[in-house]
Structures are given as structure tokens and as C-alpha cells.
Design a protein that fits this description.
heterodimer; A: alpha/beta; 5 helices; B: alpha/beta; three-stranded antiparallel β-sheet; 10 helices; 31% helix; 12% strand
Chain lengths: 148, 316
């Protein structure tokens, strides 16, 4: 029991962040250059556009043990490919409702618009997402059990 | 119903005589009672085989993509809406298609009949306007048709084909349904734990035979994500999370495309409640983008288009 509690206490959420190359990824970069502090819980995957993110990416991340997923792209109207983020917005509006509907906790899946200039906002988003996922505790639903 | 069969045959014969079609897809009597089976007619004289009754449940639109030449098709409301979907997605060409529209009062759910009879074997079925008479060796039972409809027919608001070249009989009055999403709203009201438990219970039944995908008219992709091994999106076993991901993504792929024809439910050998996912998406697409599948062939599918002011309350 003590062991279990110790593990619980040392648990840190693992969050997979799909960041658009043209905005959020550059925003993260700027946050780094600016030495802005934010929780080290995200694992970044750089994608060419938020529209590149297939819902299967998110499901696979959750299945493989991510406690949370963040998809971050350009503000509406700023897409490098003109409409990729608009397409993503429609897709994830439906998809996020579906995941919640089948019983995946609402706070596991996050979306944000962060531009390349918004380093402070990037740090805020990561902090907020990390705290929300931390509150939910380790992901149990949809996590594939490892064969011993 | 008998009249409709006659009229379909006549229409089919006429189409062959006038050389308007190379093939007609319709229904013929199945080899078992309570069954009608899809049939493919290539000559006018074979039109005699065509029938219409309350067992013509399959969505014939499933056979349309990849068909060469001029094709005629017998289409009820849901079939015609699937055809609209194909036109929208540029899978078929309208000029190569002759639609024989048939107004439909709902198809009988075979499982509901069998449930009422228990172990008793069905030898023959006679269909009247309001009821069916099921006969076996030592029994005869009358059942009201309206009690035997599956949920998707019970709340159907598209009994008449939305698109047709020939209409068989007269158009029916459409049903007034107070809330087609009643069951979905009730489910949404449950707690996350309850919803998760239900989802687990339903997916646990699944044997991953993919019959739902094969029966579904909109699952026409040459390469499906479930068969893909590079990348292998998820495991091929019946491990519970793999099955869940299969069901989530299968449902997601119906976004803005499912017309609630019920083909997946009928095909499922394990009685998985597939509709509770499809219908939820149908509801959300209507709420979010005011879009309903199978209405206007010229309106783009909702996930291929956008508006600048689409809802985004879920985005930080």
C-alpha cells in the first residue's frame, strides 16, 4: 500500500502534444528562447498542420498510455495552407464529442490555437492542460494492457 | 405490396426495352421465409424475378460504386439517400443511373419475429397490408407489421425516395417524429462511468468480423484502415481497446454520411448496438453544422467544407 501511495505521489502526467509546424511549434520554440517556464509533461510531435492530425493519432496515443492529448494549431484565418485548421476544427468538434460520449473523461483531450508569437500563451496552455490532466489521474480507459 | 412488385417488373421491362439500362439491381424472393435477397437482372425476361415486400431490407445502394455501364436500381427512402451520398462523393454518375423509387412503410425486423416465436420454426409467411401471418407445422400466428419495425424504420422521416426517375405507386405521408434523437439524449444524460460501462459492454460482444463495414453502403474505400498493415493503426485481435478503437473510428467515418438505413445493425451477428454511435454523430452534425446526410447531392459533405464561424467552444 505504501509503495502504491509512493507511486501515486510521484506520478506525473504524460501528455502528447501535436503542434503545428507553422504556429504552435514555433510558439513553443519562442517560449524556449525566451526562457519561459512551463511544466515538462508534454511530448511534442511536430505536424505540418493541425489538419494533418488524424483522430487515429489521438486514439493511438491514448491506447499507448498517454494520459492526455493536445492538438494545437494556427488561429482561424492564419493557416499556412489556408483552410487546414478550419477542416481540423470541424473534425475535432465531432470527434471530441464522440470520445466524451463513449465515456472518455472530458479533460483528456485538448485543443488550442497558439500562434508563433504567443510564447507566453503557449506556456499558459501547457500549464492549464497539465493541471487538468493531473486532476484526472493516470489514464485507465482505452489503455492497452501490456502482455507480461 | 403485390401491386408494387408488378409495377417494378413492368418498369424494369420497359427500361430494358428502351435500352436505358444494362443492369437492374432489385430484390427477389429469398430461399427462406422472411427473406428477400438482392438480385441482378440483365435481361428484360428476367424482370419476372423482381419482388417488393416488407423483407426488402438490404440497402441496395451498397452495390453501386464500381458498377460499369447504365444501372437501374430499386430504391426505397434510405437507399435513395445513400445514392445522394455517392453522388456527393463523386462515386457514381447520375446519368448512368436510373432510380426506380419505391415508397417504403418500413422493413420487418426478422430478429423481432424470431424472438416472438422462440424455438418454433417458420415455414411460410404471408403478408397483408397491416399484418403478417407466420405459419409453422403446428401453429399460425398473426403479427402487426408496425410492432415489428426496427428502431431506424420506426423513427424514419424519409419513407419516400428523395431522388428517383420512376416512382412506384403513390408517395406516402411522411411520419412525424417528435425527437429522432430521444435515445441519444437519454444516453448523454448518464454519467461518464455509466456511458463507459455501456460502451465496454457493447464492444466486448464484437468478434471483429467487420460485417458492419461490409454491409455499410458508405464503407466503399478500396483500402480500409482496419485492413491496413502499414501503418497498422491498431491490433487485429479482439483485445478490448483495439475493438473500441475500431468502433470509435468506424462510427467517426460515418460523420455526415450515415443515413440510418440500419444495414450495419442487421449484419451484426453479435447484436452490437452500433447505432448508438452513428446516431450520436448524426445528431452532432445536425447541431454543429446544420447538416443532414442524403438530402441534396450538390451540398458538400460537412467534413470537406467549413464556415469561418463554425462552433469552437471546445478549443482553448
Amino acid at each position: 500500500m505504501e509503495m502504491h501511495e509512493a507511486l501515486q505521489a510521484s506520478w506525473e502526467p504524460k501528455i502528447v502534444a501535436f503542434l503545428c509546424n507553422w504556429c504552435s511549434y514555433a510558439g513553443a520554440d519562442l517560449a524556449g528562447v525566451g526562457r519561459i517556464q512551463y511544466p515538462p509533461n508534454t511530448r511534442t510531435i511536430r505536424v505540418p498542420c493541425s489538419g494533418r492530425v488524424n483522430p487515429l493519432f489521438i486514439l493511438r496515443a491514448l491506447q499507448n498510455g498517454a494520459d492526455g492529448v493536445l492538438v494545437s494549431g494556427c488561429h482561424p484565418g492564419d493557416c499556412h495552407y489556408l483552410s487546414g485548421n478550419y477542416a481540423a476544427r470541424r473534425r475535432f468538434a465531432v470527434f471530441s464529442r464522440l470520445l466524451e460520449y463513449v465515456g472518455i473523461e472530458k479533460g483528456r483531450l485538448h485543443f488550442s490555437w497558439v500562434s508563433a508569437a504567443e510564447a507566453g500563451r503557449f506556456a499558459e496552455v501547457i500549464t492549464e492542460v497539465t493541471e487538468e490532466v493531473r486532476k484526472l489521474g493516470p489514464a485507465k480507459r482505452l489503455v492497452k494492457k501490456k502482455v507480461e | 405490396m403485390g401491386d408494387s412488385s408488378k409495377q417494378i417488373r413492368e418498369a424494369a421491362r420497359k427500361l430494358f426495352e428502351e435500352n436505358k439500362v444494362d443492369l437492374i439491381i432489385g430484390f427477389e424472393d429469398g430461399s427462406l421465409p422472411l427473406r428477400a435477397t438482392p438480385c441482378f437482372i440483365r435481361r428484360g425476361e428476367d424482370a419476372e424475378r423482381l419482388v417488393w415486400n416488407s423483407f426488402c431490407e438490404n440497402n441496395l445502394a451498397t452495390y453501386l460504386p464500381k458498377k460499369k455501364g447504365k444501372t437501374g436500381i430499386v430504391a426505397k427512402g434510405c437507399d435513395s439517400r445513400s445514392i445522394v451520398g455517392f453522388l456527393k462523393e463523386k462515386q457514381i454518375e447520375r446519368e448512368n443511373l436510373v432510380i426506380i423509387g419505391v415508397p417504403c412503410e418500413g422493413m420487418i425486423d426478422r430478429k423481432a419475429v424470431e424472438e416472438r416465436l422462440g424455438e418454433r420454426e417458420i415455414l411460410s409467411v404471408e403478408e397483408g397490408p397491416e399484418e403478417i401471418v407466420v405459419k409453422g407445422t403446428d401453429y399460425e400466428e398473426k403479427m402487426k407489421k408496425e410492432d415489428l419495425l426496427p428502431e431506424s424504420c420506426r423513427i424514419c422521416t424519409h419513407r419516400n425516395p428523395v431522388l428517383y426517375d420512376v416512382l412506384i405507386g403513390e408517395a406516402l405521408e411522411e411520419q412525424k417524429v417528435a425527437d429522432p434523437f430521444e435515445l441519444i439524449r437519454e444516453f448523454e444524460g448518464r454519467t461518464a462511468e455509466e456511458r463507459w460501462a455501456y460502451f465496454c459492454g457493447e464492444t466486448e460482444k464484437c468478434i471483429r468480423c467487420y460485417a458492419c463495414r461490409n454491409a455499410c453502403p458508405i464503407c466503399y474505400c478500396e483500402a480500409c484502415y482496419v485492413d491496413s498493415s502499414e501503418p497498422q493503426w491498431f491490433g487485429k485481435s479482439i483485445e478490448s481497446t483495439d475493438t473500441m478503437i475500431f468502433h470509435i473510428v468506424r462510427a467517426f467515418h460515418t460523420t455526415g454520411r450515415c443515413v440510418d438505413c440500419g444495414a450495419c445493425i442487421r449484419a451484426c451477428p453479435m447484436d452490437v448496438d452500433l447505432r448508438f454511435l452513428n446516431k450520436k454523430i448524426e445528431k452532432d452534425v445536425l447541431e454543429l453544422f446544420s447538416f443532414e446526410a442524403g438530402e441534396d447531392p450538390d451540398e458538400p459533405p460537412p467534413l470537406t467544407t467549413y464556415k469561418q464561424d463554425d462552433p469552437e467552444e471546445f478549443i482553448k
